[in-house]
Amino acid sequence: MGSMNDITNGVPQPTTNGDSTTKVAVTSSTNKDTYILGRSHFSSSRLNLSHFLWKQVLGFNIHPSIPTSGFKRIVDIATGTAIWPLDVASEFPDAEVDGFDIALDQCPPKNFFPRVRKLGTWDIFDDPPEEMQGWYDIVHVRLVIFVVKNNDPRVIIRNLMKLLKPGGYLQWDELDLSGSHLERGSSSAGGSDVPAPAAERALKRVQGVSVNHWAANLPAILEEEGMVRADKDVYIIPPPWAKMFSDMHLMMENELPMPTAEARRAKEE
């Protein structure tokens, strides 16, 4: 089990056109889609399940410390299936809610949820288009652990900050895998030695890759990059929900590329 971090209250120093009336454009990146997980109906179902499980544990879409009153423009970056902006647009019907990702293959047709104002393509490693800069009151991003390069999220942070209006908020929901461990249920005999070979393999892979050492230090990194204040809340997955999260993570494990034929065979055993 890994802990879930929620970083909020990051307010950038006032910079660019916070009161611009320019409409946000749908943009297209020239970069190749390097997303390492799948984009099938299986993958989309996993992302939708993830949204509802996270919401169950966190208890919110937008952190309660963020003053949503008067905030009109909200964007979800790395939006996946666009389920977060869909949910937020229903919760805040007066807000303008957008979603951006490097590809929109997993999103439903825009006319299926008219409350979401805009869906567009944007690579978070590129500078945001001028029309997006200084536009949003709230920027949300979740689960980019397999997107961050070289254990360094700074390029992403700088680009996300460019989206914010002066006084805006960045909410970053992330898994901190540094404390990942396996918790076993009780067997019928009353012991705690229930076999879990798939979970054990997944845990070894996570511990071997160490994909996000940066997550535990994200508040400090955000402040180094110019945020006025970065607060960190840690949410531990409650035992009643642990099995659901474990199943979801094993779904993701099935999507990760195996480096060798031997590794693929071992995974199938």
From TrEMBL:
Transferase in keyword set: yes
Cited CDD domains? AdoMet_MTases
Instruction: Provide the protein name.
Output: UMTA methyltransferase family protein
The UniProt entry, under InterPro entries, shows: SAM-dependent_MTases_sf
Where are the annotated segments for Disordered? 1-25
**Keywords assigned by UniProt, alphabetized:** Methyltransferase, Transferase
Instruction: Give an example GO molecular function.
Output: methyltransferase activity
Q: Which organism is it from?
A: Melanomma pulvis-pyrius CBS 109.77
Q: Name one GO biological process term.
A: methylation
Electron transport: present as a keyword of the record? no
